């Protein structure tokens, strides 16, 4: 036994769990997917899905552990939670099946649906309201509220919760989501459109988000997949950094402006003292030098 053989067995153990499951109807967990063509193909050709990889299987397994951990956190805080006893329930017309993660009992004994999600620390900090979910750059995060709205619709509840757990620290926070009739109505209409498309054998049009197509398990049979041009690489991480840079740009401008004001205020005085700071103005002689010829690269970042 050595690390290599152990790693091979670890990999194989995950690989053996990968399975493509039948999908015969829409589910609360996938109805929020942005591509109706995908949802159509998923039901019609579920067996042709490209199997996911070991990395994703590991994420699914971690998700189950996080769910148990989250329930433990909630119980530790003194709340009573109910885990579903049935495999799944259904809404008829249009048929949507679902299974909530848990229901939490409020002070009046009312059971409210809760969807548990394990998130990266960045995502965990960012998501604090339903609007944060809906404006997320990640399509699967934008789809989360749909799941909870279907639970609320099924249980006839005016509110539900996301229980978000930070995958790095294990900390859990709740986000209250009020029921949105219009949103739920749109979801039901979406489901009706997909069933109608199945009935008439008319695949819906493709979505126009290249990020959704990029990771689509049915891309190979879609026929309308949006693709990133061959000379361009897709990089989600870079997206976060650029967004953060933009968030900080106003602060940077203010910093530079205040810095100029400080210099102007000090003027030619060599030593100035404030309540908390001593400011000294020192002379620095700069040597002249010639910049050698070189090739430079400049990044141009444009909003798509
Ligand atoms: S490849 Fe894109 S358009 Fe086609 S089904 Fe998948 S997500 Fe939809």
Unreliable spans: none
**Unique bound compounds:** iron/sulfur cluster
In round numbers, the mean pLDDT is 92
CATH C-level of the largest domain: Alpha Beta
Count the strands? 10
**What is the overall silhouette?**
extended
SSE pattern, N- to C-terminal? HEHHEEEEEHHHEEHHHHEE
Q: Which class best fits the helix and strand makeup?
A: alpha+beta
**Main sheet specs:** 5 strands, mixed
TL;DR?
With 304 residues, the chain is of the alpha+beta class. It has helices at 3-15, 36-44, 54-76, 121-126, 130-134, 139-155, 181-199, 210-214, 219-222, 236-266, and strands spanning 26-27, 81-82, 89-91, 96-98, 102-105, 111-119, 159-166, 172-178, 271-273, 278-280.
Could you name the key traits of this structure?
304 residues; alpha+beta; Lambda Exonuclease, Chain A; 2 domains; five-stranded mixed beta sheet; three-stranded mixed beta sheet; 10 helices; 10 strands; extended; binds iron/sulfur cluster
Task: Please provide a written account of the structure.
By secondary structure, this protein is of the alpha+beta class. The protein folds into two domains: 19-222, Lambda Exonuclease, Chain A, CATH 3.90.320; 236-280. It is 43% helix and 14% strand. The strands form three sheets. The chain has a five-stranded mixed beta sheet, with helices on both faces. A three-stranded mixed beta sheet has the order 1-4-3, with helices on one face. A hairpin with a 4-residue loop joins strand 3 and strand 4 (96-98). Helix 2 (36-44) packs across helix 7 (181-199). The two termini are 52 Å apart. The relative contact order is 0.12. The mean pLDDT is 92. It binds iron/sulfur cluster (SF4).
């Amino acid at each position: 036994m050595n690390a290599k053989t152990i790693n091979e067995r670890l990999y194989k153990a995950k690989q053996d769990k990968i399975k493509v499951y039948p999908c015969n109807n829409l589910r609360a967990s996938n109805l929020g997917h942005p591509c109706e063509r995908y949802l159509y193909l998923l039901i019609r050709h579920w067996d042709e899905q490209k199997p996911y990889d070991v990395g994703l299987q590991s994420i699914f397994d971690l998700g189950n552990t996080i769910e148990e951990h989250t329930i433990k956190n909630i119980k530790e805080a003194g709340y009573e939670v109910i885990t579903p006893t049935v495999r799944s329930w259904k809404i008829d017309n249009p048929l949507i099946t679902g299974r909530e993660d848990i229901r939490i009992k409020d002070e009046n004994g009312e059971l409210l649906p809760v969807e548990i999600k394990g998130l990266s620390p960045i995502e965990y900090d960012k998501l604090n309201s339903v609007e944060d979910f809906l404006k997320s750059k990640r399509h699967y995060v934008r789809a989360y509220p749909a799941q909870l709205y279907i639970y609320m619709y099924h249980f006839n509840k005016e509110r539900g919760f996301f229980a978000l757990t930070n995958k790095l620290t294990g900390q859990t926070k709740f986000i209250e989501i009020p029921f949105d009739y219009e949103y739920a109505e749109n979801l039901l209409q979406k489901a009706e459109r997909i069933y109608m498309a199945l009935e008439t054998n008319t695949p819906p049009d493709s979505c126009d988000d290249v990020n959704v197509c990029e990771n689509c398990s049915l891309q190979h049979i879609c026929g309308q997949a949006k693709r990133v041009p061959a000379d361009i690489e897709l990089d989600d991480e870079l997206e976060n950094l650029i967004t953060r840079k933009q968030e900080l740009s106003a602060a940077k401008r203010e910093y530079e402006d205040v810095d100029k004001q400080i210099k102007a205020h000090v003027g030619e005085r060599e030593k100035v003292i404030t309540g908390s700071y001593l400011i000294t103005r020192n002379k620095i002689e700069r040597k002249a030098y010639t910049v050698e010829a070189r090739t430079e690269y400049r990044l141009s970042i444009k909003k798509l």
